[in-house]
Design brief:
By secondary structure, this protein is of the alpha+beta class. It contains nine helices and nine strands.
Length: 279
């Protein structure tokens, strides 16, 4: 008994000494500098995409569609012209809704600032190379050979056409094809697709393009109660006992198209989609 008490006393003394060997100097980051909207929209300087991987534009194109890096000075005005009249509807399944350039300029800068992310503009060659929407590669890990196709937004007049499925096919080819292929890819092992489970069109499209269901992450995102009703209407809501809303959030369904899926039919599916498109 005495030995147990002595050991406990030694442990308390050791803990007391250890407790003084660290500090916490954390300070909240300074508020972000407001974006220079005029500079972003009017710059004539070459836009630094700051991307850590080779951008194989031939792999990212076919007779009916092509990807190019999203350059705010070239694309942002057209983007907002298409989005602004129906922003709440188009961002219904997002976790935010932009209200203008003050929101969009820093949003797109986030992708440029991270060398493993890239925002791409979708151009429809069947309509005079018109800007048809955007898609991004983000949450990328070069070390683990994985990425996510996200922030997909196809403009209303291009929805229900070849654009979305062809664009996804090109991105899958770019991400999963091997670097030494005739149309080289990045040789990744995993491409992820995440969506609000209520977004049946997004989930259905991913499944048709060979993505496999992996499960649902509950309460993955916090949603502001100030978001438009269109977004809150598809949110998950937690209520208190009296019925008062305690908070909004979003569940997220995860799907993936991996290198084994690619070699066991994914490549053929994607090439079939691409080859069926005619300019």
């Amino acid at each position: 008994m005495h030995s147990v008490l002595a050991l406990a006393a030694i442990e308390r003394q050791t803990y007391s000494r250890m407790a003084t060997t660290y500090v916490n100097t954390y300070k909240p980051p300074a508020p972000a500098t407001p974006p220079d909207i005029d500079a972003a929209l009017s710059s004539t300087e070459p836009y630094d995409i700051n991307f850590a991987f080779p951008l194989h534009l031939d792999t990212l194109s076919c007779p009916t569609l092509r990807f190019v890096p999203f350059v705010p000075a070239q694309h942002l005005k057209t983007y907002w012209e298409h989005v602004q009249p129906r922003a709440a509807e188009l961002f219904q399944f997002y976790t935010f809704c932009p209200t203008g350039y003050a929101d969009l300029v820093p949003f797109f800068e986030r992708f440029r600032a991270n060398p493993e992310w890239i925002m791409l503009a979708v151009r429809d060659r069947t309509r005079g190379d018109a800007l048809a929407g955007v898609m991004a590669l983000y949450n990328t890990s070069g070390a683990h050979l994985s990425t996510e196709i996200g922030f997909v937004l196809i403009f209303p007049e291009f929805q229900g056409t070849h654009v979305a499925r062809t664009a996804i096919a090109l991105l899958l080819r770019y991400c999963l094809e091997k670097p030494d292929a005739p149309l080289p890819g990045l040789g990744f092992r995993r491409v992820q697709w995440c969506a609000n489970p209520n977004n049946v069109k997004s989930v259905g499209l991913a499944r048709r393009m060979g993505f496999k269901d992996e499960g649902v992450h509950r309460w993955m995102y916090v949603l502001s109660p100030e978001l438009p009703e269109e977004i809150r209407s598809v949110a998950v809501v937690k209520k208190r006992e009296g019925g008062e809303i305690e908070g909004y959030g979003r569940f997220t369904i995860f799907l993936s198209h991996c290198w084994d899926n690619w070699e066991e039919g994914g490549r053929s599916l994607v090439e079939d989609v691409i080859q069926k498109q005619k300019a």
